[in-house]
Design a protein that fits this description.
Layout lengths: L5 H16 L1 H7 L4 H10 L23 H13 L5 H9 L7 H11 L26 E7 L15 E7 L5 E6 L4 H14 L6 E4 L20 H8 L3 E4 L9 H15 L7 H15 L13 H11 L5
Parallel strand pairs: 1-4, 4-5
Antiparallel strand pairs: 1-2, 2-3
Length: 315
């Protein structure tokens, strides 16, 4: 049931007062004119609905669509149920339609003839390839150290965090660098091979120039980087993710997000040596020894140590 407004109560009080004391006194008492009183006395039939404001919408308009135009729109919509507004308007214009796009839009909205948009095809992700032993594939990426963390002598410099995560055990190795280049990547690779207790079969990276020249222009794209040359010498396969798809390197990307929350948000660095020491301590204490749900609430260090010692897994 529609609500009773204040105007309706005013009109009812006005009518009752006019019936008791007359129209002139009612007009003077309620500060209105006699025509207003007579109009509502004629309209009032004893119900609240008779005291409501009627629609002021015109019954017709001199520029409204003609019967031929309406027939053309209905026939065109029946043949093109999925056509958008502009495409639908162009098709009508080719058949003699003279109205504007806003006019057509208002008509379609009023008659509920808007386009029926088909559903987008459902995205079906590929099944995740689960690793079965350490070293089967290791994700590598580079993180730029936030400039707000650099103070005193380190202010204005640029430091980089190279990160490697074993997909099987989530064991992580990080190292600080002052340079973001293929030479730094090659150095990090050599240190990673020495630090990881198992043979490494595959290294997965993005398409950055510090790893590959795959997306470079000209003849540079055919030249392998120092990093790729060293991978071939170590008999390690290099896997590149799809361009502009960082989720394919999701484990290392997620770890970088956690680094922002748990490390960079609360630490400052006075020099490169200070940054390197704090990063090493944080990774050893707060990451590799931290229990994780995907590992059955075991730490990466425990998973890797147990596999090396007993050849068993908890996941």
């Amino acid at each position: 049931m529609a609500s009773i407004t204040q105007d309706m109560r005013f009109r009812l009080a006005l009518i009752k007062y006019a019936d008791k004391y007359g129209v002139s006194k009612a007009a003077a008492r309620y500060k209105t004119n006699r025509q207003y009183v007579y109009r509502w006395k004629r309209r009032y039939d004893g119900s609240w609905d008779s005291l409501r404001d009627r629609s002021r919408r015109p019954h017709h308009h001199p520029n409204q669509h003609t019967e031929d135009e309406i027939s053309l729109i209905n026939n065109m919509r029946r043949r093109n149920p999925n056509a958008g507004l502009v495409i639908f308007w162009v098709k009508l214009m080719q058949r003699g339609y003279k109205r504007s796009i806003p006019g057509l839009y208002r008509f379609l909205r009023k008659k509920k003839l808007m386009a029926i948009k088909p559903k987008n095809p459902k995205y079906v992700p590929k099944p995740y390839e689960q690793m079965t032993y350490p070293g089967q594939r290791i994700q590598v990426d580079v993180k730029f150290v936030p400039s707000v963390c650099l103070v005193n002598q380190a202010r204005g410099q640029k430091f980089y965090q190279y990160t490697a995560i074993d997909e099987y055990s989530r064991w992580r190795y990080v190292e600080a660098f002052e340079e973001h280049s293929t030479y730094s990547s090659m150095q990090f690779l050599e240190h990673l091979v020495k630090a990881f207790p198992m043979p490494i079969e595959c290294i997965q990276t993005d398409n950055g120039l510090e790893f590959t020249k795959r997306l470079a222009s000209g003849d540079k794209a055919k030249t392998p980087t120092i990093f790729e040359v060293r991978l071939n010498q170590l008999c390690i396969r290099h896997k590149l993710i799809r361009p502009f798809t960082p989720r394919h390197n999701g484990k290392v990307e997620r770890s970088h997000r956690k680094d922002n929350e748990r490390f960079y948000a609360t630490h400052t660095f006075y020099s490169f040596e200070d940054f390197s020491n704090q990063l090493t301590t944080y990774n050893k204490r707060d990451y590799n020894r931290f229990p994780m749900r995907p590992l059955g609430w075991k730490s990466p260090q425990n998973i890797l140590s147990d596999f090396v010692r007993y050849g068993v897994t908890y996941v």
